[in-house]
Design brief:
- One of its GO terms (cellular component) is plasma membrane.
- Keywords: Disulfide bond, Membrane, Transmembrane, Transmembrane helix.
- It comes from Drosophila persimilis (Fruit fly).
- This is GL17501.
- Pfam families: CUB.
- This protein is mainly beta.
- The protein folds into five domains: about 5-155, Sandwich (Jelly Rolls); about 165-305, Spermadhesin, CUB domain (Jelly Rolls), CATH 2.60.120; about 310-455, Sandwich (Jelly Rolls), CATH 2.60.120.290; about 460-485 and about 495-600, Jelly Rolls, CATH 2.60.120.290; about 600-695, no CATH class.
- About 10% of the residues lie in helices and about 35% in strands.
- Strands 1, 2, 4, 6, 7, 8, 9 and 11 form an eight-stranded mixed beta sheet that branches. Strands 13-14-16-21-18-19 form a six-stranded mixed beta sheet.
- Strand 37 and strand 38 (about 545) form a beta hairpin.
- The longest helix has 26 residues, at about 700-725.
- The N and C termini lie far apart (about 175 Å).
- The relative contact order is 0.06.
Length: about 750
């Protein structure tokens, strides 16, 4: 009666064969391969074949507490016959032998041919699910050997590797293959099956351009070589070498492990500097049952794309040079491995923006989002960004060898924030606290911050800072730079560059500001070709926008009061007004002249009357007509620029003429009040300028000049007269010389 075990093994005895058997779906302790008559003596003239199969690779053939006795003694007397130790090869086993093949039949690679007597010292592990065993005895051998009893199972360490296999043990492990497997990390193991002497196996871990590779070993053991096929007495019979390259480059070795003297390194990251990492295993001895270097290797890929030029010997610093990276997108490092490699110290990534004043004079950073994680156990709140130990983003510039902080972000921002440098360099630094960097941000795909940057204010824009002064003008393009950008030595691409200019206009304390676009000529009529924006301190939106579409309104811009300018104290200057021009940078296409005047606001008593006691300031000599309630100093009168706002269209005649007498009195022209009573007198009125010029002629200076000229002519006449006069002796001597 057939047992259930025999049915499960599907052991089949082939017809017309004494010992030809096939074992299918072998599992541990279920398949036993025995020589005929075991544990008795095997007969002569045998040719037995065993086909072995397991459900999972790698198939394993091993002895368990039994002796191997195939041609172990070659004589009839068991007491005096010497014992032949277990060996392999045709020379050692010419008569009785056991041959093991790595495959389905005798045409598969031969693992070894064995004979001898003793404990079989190792298991034999195949490269697949199949193994073929052949047992041959000579027709005239001694009947002294019992044969063999092997177990059949499989090595449990099989893992599916996401990659392309070439040959027996050469792999291409690409990021595409890993992505297709939907795994975050790839795995490969040490060689667990037999391999011949002088075997070399490679693992080429290949990422995309811009990626780097990380390799680490969660488990790593280094044992002595227990089942060599070829004996080797020297060092490093087996080795594992990691290369920072796409091939075995001796100049790019990261680490080599040897079986004789190396110590394993578990959970240590080996990181490439390029998209490839190459791992090579070499064995001089070969093995019947796998490598003496036992390891589980994990690998993954990290996007190491940079936005600027990386700074050598730093974790993540970059430099954006204006001539190489004139603008673009910026975010926290795509390579989250930087948060794991710090060893507990803070992660600091600094982005430096550097330009040349011959190209640009300013750097602009616009921070669009900040997304640091909130830590419930962290007692430091984001209240004092610069001082607190929190994750933060700091923007600063170096001024007089000191760090001048411009902005700091440690919490989410509701909208984009723009920061403009005051010089040709600016720095953005991301700081992450080291104690939680790994847990919070390692393999976190979300950016910690996102920003854009650009460089602005080319030579055509002229000086960055204007004022404070009672009046002035801003002219675009800057005349002194025209030769630089439009001359024969100018690069041709400059003519097609879109220009962005940002000026800082400083205003004196307790002064209002009036801007007047006096002249403007734009090549196109759309606001895309040219736009002038005026920003006040602390405002995200522009106070004025002037472009070709509203050029007529630009001549009557409202006055910016001291309160609007953001002055914090009576004696403190307000923050500068930012004036930004964006448009075509080709010289001659867009031209404008923007003039400004600082105005003194007429003080009022609580009842609304004019506070005369506060008008003793020399800055208030001429009250502008209309309802503006502003005045200007005497030196701005008749200077060729209209410094008083034009409000004739919005004021009544009474408002326009109510300050005439006061103004004439200040100018010493009060006796003309009757003539000008019905006129609107502004600071450039001919009636004032002509009378004022005649009344203020410098007669004393003219008299001194006339007297000086008379003295010069008299002195010149005396010198000439002295040179022309001669003595009588000189005349006579001259006559004698002529006669002689």
């Amino acid at each position: 009666m057939t047992t259930e075990l025999e049915l499960e093994l599907e052991l089949e005895l082939k017809q017309e064969s004494y010992c030809e058997r096939e074992y299918r779906d072998c599992r541990l302790q279920t398949c036993y391969v025995q020589s005929p008559a075991y544990p008795g003596l095997y007969p002569r003239a045998l040719n037995c074949r065993y086909k072995l199969h397991t459900r999972q690779p790698y198939i394993k053939l091993y002895l368990q507490n039994e002796q191997f006795a195939v041609d172990g003694q070659r004589c009839e007397n068991v007491m005096t016959c010497p014992i032949r130790p277990i060996g392999s090869g045709n020379e050692h086993c010419p008569f009785d032998w056991l041959a093991v093949y790595d495959g389905r039949d005798e045409h598969s690679p031969l693992i070894g041919k064995f004979c001898g007597l003793g404990k079989f010292p190792f298991s034999i592990i195949g490269t697949s699910q199949y193994m073929y065993v052949e047992f041959v005895t000579s027709p005239a051998g001694p009947l002294l050997n019992t044969g063999f009893h092997f177990n059949v199972g499989n090595w449990p360490g099989h893992v599916e590797t996401a990659g392309i296999k070439h040959g027996v043990c050469d792999w291409l492990l690409s990021s595409d293959s890993l992505k297709d497997s939907s795994a975050s990390e790839g795995i490969f193991l040490s060689i667990a099956h037999w391999y011949p002497p002088n075997t070399s196996c490679s693992y080429h871990i290949k990422g995309h351009v811009g990626e780097i590779v990380r390799l680490y070993f969660p488990s790593f053991r280094i044992n002595r070589i227990e089942s060599p096929i070829l004996k080797y007495e020297g060092d490093c019979g087996e080795s594992l070498t990691i290369y920072d390259s796409d091939h075995a480059d001796p100049a790019r070795i990261i680490k080599t492990f040897c079986d004789t003297f190396s110590r394993p390194m578990e959970k240590v990251d080996f990181v490439s500097t390029s998209p490839s990492l190459y791992v090579q295993f070499d064995s001089k001895t070969g093995s019947y049952s796998g490598s003496s270097l036992y390891y589980w290797a994990h690998y993954d890929f990290f996007n190491n794309t940079r936005f600027g030029d990386p700074v050598p010997n730093t974790l993540c610093d970059e430099v954006m040079y204006a001539w190489k990276h004139p603008g673009g997108r910026l975010r926290s490092p795509l390579n989250s491995l930087i948060f794991k490699r710090t060893g507990g110290s803070d992660v600091r990534c600094q982005y430096k923006f550097v330009t040349d004043k011959r190209l640009y004079a300013r750097a602009i950073i616009e921070v669009n989002s900040v997304s640091f994680k909130e830590l419930p156990y962290n007692s430091n709140a984001c209240t004092r960004c610069h001082e607190e130990r929190v994750d933060k983003l700091v923007i600063w510039e170096e001024r007089d060898k000191y760090q001048n902080n411009l902005a700091c972000f440690c919490d989410n921002i509701p909208r984009a924030v723009r920061v403009i440098s005051s010089a040709d360099q600016m720095n953005l630094e991301m700081i992450v606290q080291g104690q939680h960097a790994i847990t919070s941000y390692f393999k976190n795909p979300n950016p910690l911050f996102e920003a854009t940057y650009e460089f602005a204010h080319g030579p055509l824009c002229g000086p960055i800072t204007l004022g404070p002064s009672p009046d002035g003008e801003l002219v675009f393009p800057y005349k002194k730079a025209l030769a630089m950008v439009a001359g024969p030595m100018a690069p041709p691409e400059h003519h097609y560059r879109r220009e962005k200019c940002i000026w800082e206009l400083k205003v004196a304390a307790q002064r209002d500001l009036w801007l007047n676009l006096e002249k403007a000529r734009f090549a196109d009529r759309s606001c895309e070709s040219a736009k002038i924006e005026v920003y006040l301190a602390g405002r995200l939106e522009p106070r004025f926008v002037v472009c070709p579409e509203n050029i007529s309104m630009a001549r009557d811009l409202p006055i910016l009061t001291t309160a609007e300018l953001g002055a914090t104290g009576a004696d403190q200057e307000p923050l500068p007004v930012l004036i930004q021009y964006t448009g075509d940078g080709q010289p001659g296409r867009n031209i404008f002249r923007l003039v400004w005047s600082e105005l003194f606001h007429l003080p009022r008593n609580p009842d609304g009357s004019l506070a005369a006691s506060l008008l003793q300031d020399a800055g208030c000599d001429f009250r502008c007509p209309g309802d503006t309630e502003v005045c200007i100093p005497r030196h701005l009168l008749c200077n060729g620029v209209a410094n008083c706002p034009n409000v004739t269209h919005s004021s009544t005649l009474d408002q326009l003429t109510r300050h005439i007498e006061w103004n004439l009195e200040q100018l010493g022209l009060l006796h003309h009040a009757g003539e000008y009573r019905q006129l609107v007198l502004h600071d450039e009125s001919p009636e004032i300028c002509l009378r004022r010029d005649l009344s203020e002629l410098p007669y004393g200076k003219l008299s001194l000049i006339a007297l000086g000229l008379c003295l010069m002519f008299a002195l010149l006449f005396a010198i000439l007269r002295r040179m022309c006069r001669r003595s009588p002796k000189q005349s006579g001597l001259h006559q004698l010389q002529e006669d002689y």
